[in-house]
From TrEMBL, chains A, B:
A Pfam family annotated for this UniProt entry: OMPdecase
Species whose genome carries this gene: Thermogemmatispora aurantia
Gene3D superfamilies, sorted: Aldolase class I
InterPro entries named in the record: Aldolase_TIM, OMPdecase_AS, OMPdecase_type-2, OMPdeCOase_dom, RibuloseP-bd_barrel
Name of this chain's protein: Orotidine 5'-phosphate decarboxylase
Active site: K98 (proton donor)
């Protein structure tokens, strides 16, 4: 019954397309291109499906953010499912859901995302600790990217707080590195962990990669958020020149606000893939 | 257009019913009482509505956890809306959603929860920092309970890590207290913050209350999770003998697995309210 795992799908899509680009699907009704605006949620689904079709040759994964579908109201999840149906099954889908709850409830979220939506991976919150993440890891063929150093302006409010090591021996280090170290331990037990680290903070990204040489990194923040692509790619690559997904949403979705949106999205994805690959090679 | 705020509704419901009890709505298909089991999602809605009706005289708020509705699939949010329709508008509803994302995306979540679902309050994650919470606080009549010290076994994995103060002067304190202190600052600016602190850790709850004498506290963990009610109430009360909501889910929902489930739920709620009030008075 179980098909290929997230890691298998990702490896194959990434290798076939020579791509580390993950296309983020964050559609908003009032940002739809002019020809689709004011035409309701179905136009939003059409928009996403055209974006998927146009970017497919250049993407190693898709990452819908659930918030933008939930904002559409009770039909949001059905609309998301319609969008997901446009993504070929061999291309992995990461549900950007940033869920986190106590174990009993986290199991319900895992059911929703892996079984009901059929996604291949998910983003999760670290704050509740191991038993809030474990229910996602219990799906061996799926993967959970734990938030580590996020891409937003306030990321440092808590993530940069200096925490003492349990033994008191080692030097204090920022919370996000304590999270990275803990997730590395979970990875030894489960093998299906990853981390989220924003492109907007390449120094922190490099520190995470140094501590976690083999963990898959999901790296948002390039484009609308201002992250510098080359610095992020260099900071996040593993020793094989891969091991990361560069997630770009708005710079692809809204590359053109007029009738050429799909063409422009495909072209933006093609250029981003090329820029990523150039940074990999340099 | 805007009706009474969360704080107004809560105060009125709490005072009218002499209650700090918040009834958690965490329905699961395979835990439905025997007469409803195997009868699909509509039976789950009926179950929740009967629970609401039976517990209404004893509850100052309701707290549906979105995970259990999302686990039902794409129709989950519609089913949740049907459940919410059974709660009288003067009784406040806390969406237990534990959302947290970058500001732009957090705005979409706030739209979903406050505008689409019409809830009065929400639980949110602290990990992304201020700009991940601010979009919820921008709804002045709503309230955001920020996770501080959660009720689960792994709560301490990160929440108990000792963090240094920014100035280096003050003593190191656990992360959850650093979160409490920061939220207290946000409260000064916004006035619509609260904290989540589990009943399972009354010592930590007391430390939070000491640092934040006036913040509303949402306190889950009594009942199925083993939290001791009296200790939690004593630890969490503010100086006026209120300021907290004791959230109980499974011990009410599944008080009786047979045909008397609604009666048993009402009776469980009545007893819990009495036990809470006894602890308040003692």
């Amino acid at each position: 019954m179980s098909g290929p795992s997230f890691l298998e799908k990702w490896q194959q899509a990434s290798s076939e397309r020579q791509s580390l680009l993950c296309v983020g699907l964050d559609p908003e009704l009032d940002r739809l291109p002019a020809p689709l605006r004011g035409r309701g949620p179905e136009a939003l689904v059409r928009f996403c499906r055209e974006i998927v079709e146009a970017t497919l040759p250049y993407a190693c994964a898709y990452k819908p953010n659930l918030a933008f579908f939930e904002a559409l109201g009770p039909q949001g999840w059905s609309l998301l499912r319609e969008v997901l149906a446009a993504i070929p099954p061999q291309v992995p889908v990461i549900a950007d859901a940033k869920r986190g709850d106590i174990g009993h409830t986290a199991r319900a979220y895992a059911t929703a995302i892996f079984e009901q939506l059929g996604c291949d991976a998910v983003t999760v919150q670290p704050y509740l600790g191991y038993d809030g993440v474990q229910p996602f890891l219990a799906y061996h063929e799926k993967l959970a990217f734990v938030l580590c150093r996020t891409s937003n302006p306030g990321a440092g409010d808590f993530q940069d707080l200096l925490v003492q090591s349990a033994s008191g021996e080692a030097q204090a280090r920022p919370l996000y590195l304590a999270v990275a170290e803990r997730v590395r331990q979970w990875q030894e037990r489960h093998g299906n962990c990853g981390l989220v680290a924003g492109a907007t903070y390449p120094r922190e990204l490099a520190a995470i990669r140094e501590r976690c040489p083999t963990l898959p990194l999901l790296v948002p923040g390039v484009g609308a958020q201002g992250g510098e692509l080359e610095a992020a790619v260099r900071a996040g690559l593993d020793e094989h020149g891969g091991g990361m997904l560069i997630a770009v949403s708005r710079a692809i979705l809204y590359a053109d606000g007029g009738s050429d949106y799909a063409l422009a999205a495909g072209e933006a994805a093609r250029r981003l893939r090329a820029a990523i690959n150039q940074a990999r090679g340099s």
